[in-house]
Specification:
mainly alpha
């Protein structure tokens, strides 16, 4: 849902108003930076991608369609795509957990819920450590759903998917995270 404030902001951005650009950075900058940092852990790289996101937003504001998504979701989509693109280009050496025997899929949702349902400091720290072992696209889905509290529909828009596919990926990734947490605890 586009608010009157967003409509005025979008009009200003389309006129390339420096004041509107500043308002956009103030209103959305922290959220975008947080989203980027969750995918790109090195701060220098995250800052580079963050700048690229807003350059792209400013240059493509005329393509924004309020009928398809909120301004926040549209910007998140750009941040997601820029982050994934950066990671692909840099092909940074990261070791991901591979579930060769598909053990994670055999877990029940109840078992996984019991682990994630206890928001203790230890659990939060384990989840943060485990996230680093996921490929960027899986990490993005988890962070958008849990940290940014986006709906499946919003995540589907951002990742250019459909809500049922996002739900399946979220379920598989939660199970994978559970296995990683168990591995880190041992």
């Amino acid at each position: 849902m586009t608010t009157t404030t967003d409509i005025n902001l979008i009009e200003g951005l389309r006129k390339q108003s420096p004041k509107a650009q500043q308002r956009l950075l103030e209103g959305y900058g922290n959220d975008v930076f947080t989203q980027v940092v969750r995918l790109i852990p090195r701060i220098e790289n995250a800052e580079e991608v963050y700048q690229d996101v807003f350059v792209k937003v400013f240059n493509n504001i005329n393509k924004y369609d309020a009928e398809k998504s909120s301004l926040r979701t549209w910007i998140s989509r750009i941040a997601y795509n820029e982050s994934i693109s950066f990671l692909r280009q840099k092909s940074l050496p990261v070791i991901y957990y591979e579930d060769h025997e598909r053990e994670a899929e055999k877990l029940s949702e109840t078992e996984v819920d019991e682990t994630f349902g206890k928001p203790s400091l230890e659990t939060v720290q384990l989840i943060r450590a485990a996230l680093k072992h996921l490929p960027p696209d899986e990490r993005a889905v988890i962070t958008m759903f849990y940290y940014e509290e986006m709906s499946l529909k919003e995540i589907a828009y951002i990742t250019e998917s459909i809500p049922t596919t996002v739900a399946s990926k979220l379920s598989r990734t939660r199970k994978k995270l559970y296995k990683i947490i168990k591995m880190l605890q041992s």
